[in-house]
Write a structure and sequence with these properties.
The structure holds 2 protein chains of 2 kinds.
Chain A: H1 2-20, H2 28-36, H3 40-45, E1 52-56, H4 61-74, E2 79-81, H5 89-98, E3 111-115, H6 121-127, E4 132-135, H7 143-146, H8 149-161, E5 167-171, H9 175-178, E6 187-192, E7 217-223, E8 226-230, E9 243-250, E10 255-261, E11 268-272, H10 277-292, H11 297-306, E12 313-319, E13 322-327, H12 332-342, E14 349-354, E15 380-386, H13 390-399, E16 407-409, H14 413-423, E17 429-434, H15 436-448
Parallel strand pairs in A: 1-3, 1-4, 2-3, 4-5, 5-6, 6-9, 13-17, 14-15, 14-17, 15-16
Antiparallel strand pairs in A: 7-8, 9-10, 10-11, 12-13
Chain B: E1 4-10, H1 21-32, E2 37-43, E3 56-59, H2 64-76, H3 78-86, E4 90-94, H4 96-100, E5 104-106, E6 111-113, E7 120-136, E8 159-172, E9 180-184, E10 194-195, E11 197-199, E12 202-205, H5 211-214, H6 216-231, H7 243-258, E13 262-263
Parallel strand pairs in B: 1-2, 1-3, 3-4, 4-12, 5-7
Antiparallel strand pairs in B: 5-6, 7-8, 7-9, 7-13, 9-10, 11-12
Helix pairs in contact in B: 1-6
The chains are: A alpha/beta, B alpha/beta.
The structure holds zinc ion (ZN).
Chain lengths: ~450, ~260
């Protein structure tokens, strides 16, 4: 009965917020539903016949979820996933409630994919026992909210510990993530096996062996602290991988790699239209989960090739003869990765950087000093900076040796967008790199002009 | 003859939280724009270094685990660092680095000894103090190294802006002076009182941001001190076009007024 009322209220709340266009349509229904029926997540998730998959970690959650959904749909399953970037408990409650019948006896799908914030993990695994949990990576992100990286790892560990029946897929290239093995007996590893050398010269987030505190040795690393590592003191090292990519080929607009599943004889070439090494990691994560669920490799292969960018992850929008490419940036590693991807071809780029410092962006903007903007300082033709902390971004560019004559500062995002588009020639791309709330603001502007269909995907 | 200065960056692999790298970049650029050659030496655990040849020492903040590892190594260098600081070596230490340059850090479970450059000690607080900070240095700076350009109250350079994020509370003894006084934010003890610590040419602070890019006068002050340390003479640093730095400083002042601080 409570579920019925909760579902009813949730549906009304959604309709109301859609009618009034007041926003909050993604979390308010869930907030209300959980108030009325605190066990609503447990109840409704339990109705999914093929169970739930939980994706957590710092970077790549949304894209991995989107890729996985495409694969599962191609295999004939009806999938629901919380693609609206609402990865807290109430977002998940909303999305389950809105996808079930009024009585709550049926959820309108075979399988659920939940993207869950690191800090929300213990709460969620306390409510549902997922069939599979994947941890993509752990990077420094919005430290003022979550505290330090080791603590984030502990939080995820405690969440895994609460769900002993879940298969746990860990990124073996990440020494912090791979170490989560101690929390489960059903561990599988994915990773890249190729001596790629990162162009990145910057600081590594975590170079310390979690077992003995000694510094790790790296034979090579891909980006951040991902790579082939070993502790010279206690022997902790990158584990043998169950699912891996080799023979990587990276370009600005597509990438390929060879996928190897240890329990299968044959290897398959995987191709994705999404750029950058970080997106290959997402593709690998999706491949690993799908294989773990028993999906045939040829289905994975074809489905992945069709996937286009997720919300703000190299999503492109046509504006007349010009195109916008949106690339969300939220932490130094992600920022550096996006920048590095833009250097794959040597065409001078139109760049639009938007830095906000609201709660969802992280109120501390120090992290822009860890992003290696120097990589692209000779590959731009004009740069626009905007957002609440536009002055800080401009200052960062000055110290990264950008040509100041190319740069325009306009704090108002709508005006800055107009100026940046003005400077972009026909048939060229304007690369927009906003932080989270700046992305939402930008989307609203595009929506009001009828350039995108919805505020969220 | 080209001026040459040397900066030792202590533990860059372990103490690299919160964009503290921006401080190194700033010192490097502001030297190179003036044709001063700044050599940067990275010093990691176990590396040997001759501090007599160093003019500027930098130590940033780290995660708890990183801090523990380097604490032991840092202790081995205690006498040498103390000796050189007494002989004019310039040091900038941020957050965790500042704490370890004090007498000790009493966490909830253990007492981590510091190297006692600063007459200060740190105790773990109940809350984490997070937010934008504005520090007034017009009064405090009068007591820094005599003979150097001080920052008068009317001076636009009289403030430092940054971002604090710490749970440790640092109490200063009589031999350590504050870096400045809080206009906005929490400060060393979380009470809106004093911020940071100064002993001779060694400076400690909780300000990330990064600190130096948005406070270029403080960066230049450190460079002047480093010059004095090496060449035993004052230097008139060439003026740079700091319009962008000033804009960022001003924007941070405004943001400190409007954005809310949290303690969790
Ligand atoms: Zn070890």
């Amino acid at each position: 009965m409570r579920i019925l009322i909760a579902n009813l209220i949730a549906k009304i709340a959604r309709t109301a917020s859609r009618l009034t266009k007041s926003g909050g349509g993604t979390t308010l229904p869930g907030l209300l539903a959980e108030k009325i029926a605190p066990n609503i997540i447990t109840k409704l998730a339990g109705r999914l016949p093929q169970g739930t998959i939980i994706i957590t970690g710092t970077n790549g959650k949304t894209t991995t979820a989107k890729m996985l959904a495409a694969i599962l749909e191609a295999s004939g399953l009806k999938v629901i996933y919380n693609s609206s970037g609402s990865n807290l408990s109430r977002g998940i409650a909303s999305f389950l409630s809105l996808n079930s019948n009024l009585l709550g006896t049926k959820v309108n799908a075979d399988i659920g994919i939940f993207e869950v914030d690191e800090a929300t993990m213990p709460e969620i695994t306390g409510k549902i026992s997922p069939r599979l949990i994947i941890v993509t990576n752990l990077f420094r992100d919005q430290l003022d909210r979550y505290g330090e990286l080791n603590k984030t790892a502990e939080i995820i560990g405690s969440a895994i510990d609460k769900s002993p029946q879940s298969t746990v897929l860990l990124n073996g290239d990440d020494p912090l993530v791979a170490d989560l093995k101690k929390f489960s007996h059903k561990i599988r590893y994915f990773g890249i096996d190729e001596p790629l050398v990162s162009k990145s010269t910057g600081a590594i987030d975590s170079k310390i062996c979690l077992h003995c505190g000694h510094e790790l040795d790296y034979e090579y690393r891909y980006f951040g602290h991902l790579g082939r590592y070993q502790c010279p003191n206690c022997g902790y090292k990158k584990p043998d991988l169950d699912y891996k990519f080799t023979k990587l080929d990276l370009k600005v607009d597509e990438s390929t790699a060879l996928f190897k599943n240890n329990s299968e004889k044959e290897d398959f070439t995987i191709k994705t239209k999404l750029p950058g090494l970080y997106n290959l990691y997402n593709a690998l994560a999706a491949c690993a989960i799908a294989s773990e669920l028993g999906i045939k490799t040829f289905i994975i292969q074809t489905a992945l090739e069709q996937v286009s960018a997720a919300f703000g992850r190299m999503e492109t929008i046509a504006i007349g003869k010009k195109r916008l490419a949106l690339l969300l940036v939220k932490n130094p590693t992600g920022f550096t990765q996006v920048i590095e991807t833009l250097t794959y071809d040597k065409k001078p780029k139109n760049l639009f950087l938007i830095l906000n410092d609201k709660f969802a962006d992280g109120t501390d903007i120090s992290w822009i000093w860890d992003a290696e903007l120097e990589m692209i300082n000779r590959l731009t033709k004009n740069v626009t900076v905007s957002g609440l902390r536009a002055e800080d971004m401009l200052l960062r560019l000055k110290y990264a040796d950008f040509d100041l004559k190319q740069i325009l500062l306009e704090k108002n995002i709508a005006l800055a967008l107009a100026a940046a588009l003005e400077k972009t020639n026909d048939n060229e791309v304007l690369y927009v790199l906003p932080t989270y709330t700046a992305m939402l603001e930008l989307r609203k502007i595009l929506f009001n002009r009828g350039l995108v269909k919805g505020l969220v995907e | 003859m080209k001026i040459k200065l040397t900066l030792a960056h202590l533990y860059p692999d372990n103490m690299n939280l919160y964009g503290d790298l921006g401080n190194i970049v700033t010192l490097e650029k502001r030297c190179s724009w003036r044709q001063i050659d700044l050599e940067i030496i990275k010093v990691n655990v176990g590396d040997s270094i001759d501090l007599e040849k160093v003019d500027l020492l930098f130590l940033g903040g780290g995660q708890d685990q990183g801090q523990k590892i380097i604490a032991t190594d840092l202790l081995k260098r205690k006498e040498e660092i103390q000796k050189e600081i007494d002989r004019g070596l310039v040091a900038l230490t941020i957050c965790g680095g500042f704490q370890l340059f004090g007498q000790y850090f009493q966490t909830k479970t253990e007492k981590i000894p510091g190297i006692g450059v600063f007459d200060s000690y740190t105790v773990a607080g109940e809350k984490r103090l997070i937010g934008n900070v504005v520090v007034d240095i017009s009064k405090s700076s009068q007591e820094w190294t005599p003979g150097f350009n001080h920052f008068t109250p009317k001076d636009k350079r009289a403030t430092l802006v940054g971002f604090e994020n710490h749970s440790g509370q640092t109490i200063l003894g009589s031999k350590c002076k504050p870096l400045g006084y809080i206009k906005k934010g929490f400060g060393n003890r979380g009470d809106g009182g004093y911020e940071g610590g100064v002993y001779k040419n060694a400076f400690g602070t909780y300000l990330h941001g990064s600190l130096l890019p948005k406070n270029p006068w403080f960066a230049d002050y450190l460079i002047s001190l480093a010059y004095f340390r090496r060449y035993h003479d004052n230097i008139d640093l060439a003026l740079l076009d700091d319009q962008i730095e000033l804009e960022a400083h001003r924007a941070a002042l405004t943001r400190a007024e409007t954005a809310k601080t949290v303690s969790i």
